[in-house]
Amino acid sequence: MKGDWPYRLREHRGTLLAFAAFVAMFAIYAANHPAGLNANVATTAANKGVLLAIVAMAQTLVVLTSGIDLSVGMVMVLANCLASSIVVGSPAQTVLGALGVLAVGALCGAINGLIVIYGRLQPIVTTIATGAIFYGAALALRRVPGGDVNAGLADALTGQLPGGVPASLALLLGLVVVVWLPFRRSSIGRAAYAIGSSEVAAYMSGVPIRRAKFVAYLLSGLLASVAGLFLTCITYSGEASAANGNTYTLYSIAAVVLGGVSLFGGSGSAIGAIFGALMFRTIGDLLFVFNLDPLWQPLFQGVVLAAAVCLGALRLLRVRNRLDLYG
User: Fold this and answer.
1) 157 lies in a domain?
2) Could you tell me if residue 38 is inside a domain?
């Protein structure tokens, strides 16, 4: 309806701002890149951005329920190590291996969800513990970096489509269509938003809290395993790297915040988190293009993240009723 546009605008304000900021930053990056904007530059940038965007999508699902998944990076690392071992061989073996990787990721998410729901532990405590377990499993699989992945699958996911379009963008779009949109429009997705807004009110309203939380964690683990598989296709190897796991966990939280998703839950969109991830990656690329000393890059990225968190918290402090965020 025509009268709904102010509500829609406020609802998607964070996503629109993240999109506008990303477009502006990427335009500056492309204009100042030594090689200009060509298919290879775009594909390289897309592959890096999509990898973080998938992890950010995984983080968003949990954050919407007013939780934080600190194991999401370790699930990605575990999936990376597993994929480098079993996503090889004939096309049939590759498909079975990829399905096995996704199943393990979903299992990791399910474990997180069950502990949070039935153990009644804080998500941050639970996922710190399970993240250590997942990393231990990854280390058992890959004591040293190595392995391989089916070259056809790797080329299909990290190469270029006709016209020079990065294939990774098609993968990201597919995940949005297959995972995020059905979740967002389902009763379970609406329940996840309700839990994040007020779990007590959601419970009193008869919202299926346990089911919604379980599905959110399950899908989070599944998406993290997709990221791990994609990482394997980029690197053609697996590595049990705690640094990678911790970095992507932190960056996923940064992308969520930059994408307008509230860390208090109940507000935001995975699409906003995607543009937040692309924007965060572009910030790093801009620092490289402008030859900023690498020692200063983490400091600058930290300042950007701190500013985004402060702005998000300020927005909540200015309202007395959480419903004001939508009305």
Assistant:
1) yes
2) no
Judge whether 4 lies within some domain: no
pLDDT tens across 188-218, in order?
999 999 998 888 888 888 889 999 999 999 9
Domain extent at residue 318: 15-26+45-325
CATH number, domain of 101, equals: 1.10.3470
- 7 lies in a domain? no
Measured distance CA(151)–CA(41) in Å, rounded: 21
Q: Which of 211, 209, 247, 256 is nearest to 57 (CA)?
A: 256
Lowest mean pLDDT among 55-64, 75-84, 258-267: 258-267
* pTM of the predicted model as reported, rounded to 2 decimal places: 0.91
Structural domain count of the chain: 1
